[in-house]
Design brief:
With about 170 residues, this protein is of the alpha/beta class. It has one domain: Double Stranded RNA Binding Domain. It is about 40% helix and about 30% strand. A five-stranded mixed sheet has the order 2-1-3-4-5, with helices on one face. α2 crosses α3. The N and C termini lie far apart (about 45 Å).
């Protein structure tokens, strides 16, 4: 029995330590099962990714909510910055850190406004010998960053739900 317990404990520690997460682990709170979504650019990568994740989590997105009866997730802006981390001997940048910053807010049925800021960091190696592959790799990294930012935005709905529950009690 002790061996089984030790094996299960060791497996859990190893899976937790390596960053393993189950797919679709984000559980959307009940009050966010129906909501509106707004973005300045509804067709950019971030907006499409957020909408896709909300749909995968069975959130009903309402187009019009003139009565303000549903929570609203609004993407204010997003920006990808690039900082040099290391340089070659000739002074050109060898490695960049890409930083995606997303500013959003959740409006709770016309009552409270909760600002949300997420940042996603990735490292990108700049090899001047492979210019075409470099562009493709950077686009792939940016797509992954948008997916990670969308997951962070959706997971922050849980913390807003907790705050709302404290206000209501």
């Amino acid at each position: 029995m002790k061996k089984l317990f030790s094996l299960v404990t060791l497996t859990m520690i190893l899976l937790t330590g390596c960053g393993f997460h189950l797919q679709h682990e984000t559980e959307i709170p009940k009050q966010f099962e129906t909501m509106t979504f707004y973005s300045e650019n509804p067709y950019n990568e971030l907006s499409r990714t957020v909408k896709d994740l909300l749909n995968k989590n069975k959130v009903l997105l309402v187009q019009e909510d003139s009565a303000h009866q549903y929570p609203s997730l609004r993407i204010i802006n997003s920006n990808i910055g690039k900082e040099t981390i290391s340089i070659y001997q000739n002074g050109k940048s060898a490695e960049y850190q890409l930083i995606l910053t997303v500013n959003a807010q959740v409006i709770m049925a016309g009552r409270d406004i909760y600002p949300i800021t997420t940042k996603v960091f990735r490292t990108f190696f700049d090899n001047p010998a492979t210019a075409l592959a470099k562009t493709t790799e950077q686009k792939l990294i940016e797509r992954e960053m948008y997916t990670q930012a969308a997951k962070q935005l959706i997971s922050k709905l849980k913390s807003i739900n907790t705050i709302e529950n404290k206000h209501n009690t």
